[in-house]
Design goal:
Blueprint lengths: L10 H9 L5 E6 L4 H12 L3 E7 L1 H11 L7 E4 L3 H14 L4 E4 L4 H8 L13 E7 L7 E4 L9 H17 L6 E5 L10 H14 L7 E6 L1 H5 L1 H6 L12 E3 L3 H13 L4 E7 L5 E2 L7 H28 L1
Parallel strand pairs: 1-2, 1-4, 2-3, 4-11, 6-9, 7-8, 7-9
Antiparallel strand pairs: 5-6, 5-10
Length: 319
């Protein structure tokens, strides 16, 4: 099976091709009470990716479906009184095994993540939960993963370790065998006055000692040095990662979010997004997302869920 490269048909089509032959995945959609979130569910169902379970106030869901001019009668609908209850019920469906994926509807991300992170009823694992963008940038020769631009605001070193590992694990699902990971900062040298350079250096040493596995790390690297071999050569940086990065690790949420949106709205990149580190991948949709972005995010989630299921017998055999 080929890696997810960038064929002329686009990254979304490459992800869909990887999903061919996989069964549609039961997906709890939390509070799909507007036109965009209902369309996202229907589009993903039509693509053969998910079996939607709509969770929210029935009247509002039906009204959204009427506005979107789509038929939701084939889908299971779990009625709840409000968005808080929608988030809790959707998470409960995943915990019970009735759903294998969780998808955000028209509620706020914080509202959904509050239920995901609940100590006794949520979807926590031993890993920090973090977000990864998968970007298809027209002028970059390979898919580009950017993390974390949506969940962790100012991660510390230990949290960054998990953020990096989550992104590496996703790269493996995308069949990037040894992803090149650039730990970003403003400069390429360690400067005690810039804490992100200290974290970058520490993360690289953690990888050397086996605390991060499966990828090739370098940092600190400025953005130009991470994605341009010419820029790295001008700075005299000798590195197998510089200019060839598969994963960009931002110092904090603000810089990661700005970077991803800048590539989308100024560089014409397309993006898919996924939350990792929970019991199941979580699809975060946005009103600004195109149909292709929503489909690509669902396809990536289906691939991660299939990979988790494939690994489960191995885990159980070891216990």
């Amino acid at each position: 099976m080929a890696t997810v490269n960038k064929p002329a048909s686009g990254l979304c089509d490459a992800l869909l091709a990887r999903c061919a032959g996989l069964s549609a995945t039961p997906t709890a959609i939390a509070h799909p009470c507007d036109e965009v979130s209902i369309l996202a569910a229907v589009e993903a169902h039509r693509a053969g990716l998910i079996v939607p379970i709509l969770v929210g106030p029935e009247v509002k869901i039906q009204a959204a479906a009427a506005l979107a001019k789509v038929d939701i009668s084939p889908f299971r609908l779990e009625s709840t009184p409000h968005s808080h209850a929608s988030a809790a019920k959707a998470v409960a469906l995943v915990r019970s095994g009735e759903a294998s994926l969780l998808m955000k509807g028209s509620l706020h991300t914080d509202e959904l993540m509050h239920e995901v992170l609940a100590p006794d009823t949520g979807l926590r694992t031993g890993r920090l939960i973090s977000h990864v963008y998968l970007m298809d940038v027209p002028n970059y020769p390979r898919p580009l993963l950017i993390t974390d631009g949506a969940i962790n605001i100012t991660p510390d070193l230990e949290q960054k370790r998990d953020i990096v590992q989550n992104a590496i694990d996703l790269a493996h699902v995308l069949l990037i065998e040894q992803p090149k990971v650039a730990i970003l900062s403003a400069v390429e040298t360690v400067n005690p006055r810039i804490p992100s350079t200290i974290d970058a250096a520490a993360l690289c040493k953690m990888a050397d000692r086996g605390q991060i596995s499966g990828g090739l790390l370098d940092g600190p690297l400025a953005f130009d040095n991470a994605i341009s071999q010419e820029a790295a050569a001008e700075k005299g940086i000798v590195s197998p990662v510089a200019g060839r990065a598969d994963i960009l690790v931002a110092p904090d949420l603000v810089s990661g979010n700005i970077l991803a949106k800048q590539l989308t709205f100024l560089a014409g990149a397309s993006a898919a997004g996924l939350v990792l580190g929970a019991r199941t991948p979580i699809i975060l949709t946005s009103r600004a997302d195109s149909e292709r972005t929503r489909i690509a995010s669902c396809a990536m989630a289906v691939l991660v869920a299939a990979d988790q299921m494939a690994r489960l017998p191995v885990v159980l055999a070891k216990t």
